[in-house]
Specification:
Layout lengths: L13 H8 L10 H14 L2 E4 L2 E5 L2 E11 L6 E13 L2 E6 L2 E7 L5 E8 L2 E6 L3 E15 L7 E3 L2 E3 L6 E16 L4 E6 L2 E9 L8 E9 L2 E7 L10 H7 L3 E8 L1 E10 L2 E9 L2 E8 L2 E8 L2 E7 L2 E7 L1 E9 L7 E14 L1 H6 L10 E13 L15 E15 L2 E11 L14 E10 L1 H10 L5 H14 L1 E4 L2 E9 L3 E4 L2 E2 L3
Antiparallel strand pairs: 1-3, 2-3, 3-4, 4-5, 4-6, 5-8, 6-7, 7-9, 8-9, 9-12, 10-11, 12-13, 12-14, 13-16, 14-15, 15-18, 16-17, 17-20, 18-19, 19-22, 20-21, 21-24, 22-23, 23-25, 24-25, 25-26, 26-27, 27-28, 28-29, 29-31, 30-31, 31-32, 32-33
Length: 506
């Protein structure tokens, strides 16, 4: 069943833990005193303990002082501490108002303790019955700040480390507005909005074995997240769960958008400092899981990047990008759609970056790259621990389509499209030197000679090799216009492959 009461774990983030464990246990006719008792009962059922120095019942309002919330089996693992916690009815909902500042303290390996101070000027509204749950968060300002502290002296691979804790966490969320509605029958709706989220972080670099740190700071403008789900109570870790859940009508959709974002980061690659600055426009990301498959789509407006790696500096900008991925998640008798598409529009490196690779003549030229592939096929075994094992592929493909292939550099462009049917499917090609298939592809190269001349003038294609490059290109294409070559590739049953009507020359 859908566990909308929450099961907080020690590894949960401090803010999320604080909000989750204080989720109200009220109902339409429940008093504040009954809600306080229900909250304590709910916490015990989730493996948490709530203690307080005193509890004052002022009619419709209950205020607990000196509140501490912690896992019962690990009292020092995570502790949420607040001066006061007030419960107050608000119509059909119950308001929980933590003190304007509360702390979340965690204890890590080596008995190192870290404390995050959370300050806010908002409240939590909630309602919980046997069948439904509601949770609303309204925080004009919410901040999280890691309190500087001293850490026990330590060594990493024999190298002494400073005793001061190098980590830093400063996060500010403006105009946070969130709403959760869930039902025991398995439906859920979540919406999270904010005017902005800014952050300033310092944390260990997992790829740096000498204890290096990563510094990041940035801001997201108008982030928006929505999630909807049905029959979520069917989800579990059991074998065959996915098929049973889809058969019951399980579906989920997650969408995240942001109007703009920017970030600066600093770290070291070995002993060389690496700095990156990014700035992006609006972006959109959506995941849909329904009808036995998963589909992902995304897009982003203009994006700019600059930085340096030691003494080397460079920058690049992108006019926009789109992506789409999709695949079935359960075995079906009929073919389903597989999709892979990535498109980068107007990628333009800076002159400094091009100069580092000896390509200064391409300064000012934009690059566009698109790969759009789709296929008809189906899974041959259900997704599980042994999905990739066995003597045969876990999926079978009957038809592959190259919907769009595009690479453009300045005024030179290579494009292609086509489709091929695999006779006997993907498994029917095992052990064959050439595919037993039937299909046609068309490729066009416009401005290829101009591009070769530019590459030669830059020394990227030596003069003694240029003849062989031209011979190979002209051997695979026929001229249909000024500096325009075309190749028509035909694949026929039995493994015959021709280019412009002639057998493949290799």
């Amino acid at each position: 069943m859908l566990d909308y009461t929450g099961r907080p774990r020690v590894a949960a983030t401090a803010i999320l833990l604080a909000l989750t464990v204080t989720a109200p246990a009220g109902a339409q006719t429940m008093s504040a005193a009954a809600a306080w008792a229900g909250l304590n009962s709910l916490a015990l059922g989730a493996g948490l303990s709530i203690t307080s120095g005193s509890v004052a019942n002022n009619g419709d309002t209950v205020t607990a002082s000196g509140v501490r919330i912690f896992p019962t089996n690990d009292p020092n693992g995570v502790v949420v501490s607040m001066d006061t916690l007030t419960l107050q009815p608000r119509g059909e909902l119950m308001a929980l108002i933590p003190s304007p500042m509360f702390q979340v303290t965690t204890q890590t390996g080596g008995n190192q303790t870290r404390t995050v101070e959370v300050t806010h000027d908002g409240e939590i509204l909630g309602m919980l019955t046997e069948q439904n749950a509601a949770l609303d968060l309204n925080f004009p300002t919410l901040t999280a700040h890691l309190v500087p502290s001293a850490a026990p002296p330590a060594t990493i691979k024999g190298t002494p480390q400073a005793s001061a804790d190098p980590m830093r966490v400063d996060v500010t969320i403006n105009a946070l507005d969130a709403s959760l509605r869930a039902a025991r029958e398995g439906t859920a709706e979540l919406t999270i909005d904010a005017a902005s989220v800014s952050y300033d972080l310092v944390y260990p670099d997992p790829a740096n074995e000498t204890g290096g740190m990563i510094t990041q700071s940035g801001v997201q403008t108008a982030p928006h997240l929505t999630f909807t789900g049905t029959e979520l109570d069917m989800l579990s870790g059991d074998d065959g769960m996915l098929r049973a859940a889809f058969d019951a009508g399980m579906a989920m959709s997650l969408n995240f958008t942001v109007q703009a974002s920017q970030q600066s980061s600093r770290q070291s690659m070995g002993t060389t400092p690496l700095a990156m600055n990014t700035q992006g426009g609006a972006s959109d990301f959506t995941i849909t899981v329904a009808d036995g498959r998963a589909d992902i789509t995304g897009s982003a407006d203009a994006f700019a990047l600059s930085g340096n790696f030691g003494p080397m500096q460079g920058a690049a900008q992108l006019a926009g990008m789109t992506m789409a991925f999709g695949a079935p998640l359960v075995v079906t008798s009929d073919d389903q759609l597989f999709r892979y598409m990535v498109s980068l529009d107007g990628l333009q490196p800076s002159p400094e970056l091009l100069a580092m690779v000896g390509a200064s003549q391409f300064a000012g030229d934009a690059v566009t790259m698109t790969v759009d592939l789709s296929a008809d096929g189906h899974l041959t075994r259900e997704i599980g621990p042994d999905f990739g094992e066995g003597d045969t592929p876990p999926l079978d493909i009957s038809r592959v389509r190259l919907d769009d292939l595009r690479l453009a550099v300045g005024d030179s462009e290579f494009t292609g499209d086509g489709a091929v049917t695999l006779l006997g499917g993907l498994m029917g090609q095992i052990g064959r030197d050439r595919p037993n298939a039937d299909g046609d592809f068309t490729f066009d190269l416009v401005g290829g000679e101009r591009l070769l001349n530019r590459l030669q003038s830059m020394g990227l294609v030596p003069a003694d090799q240029l003849f062989f490059v031209r011979m190979m290109i002209n051997g695979l294409g026929r001229s249909i216009g000024e500096d325009h070559l075309q190749s028509e590739v035909a694949i026929r049953p039995g493994g015959a492959i021709t280019v412009n009507g002639a057998p493949l020359p290799f």
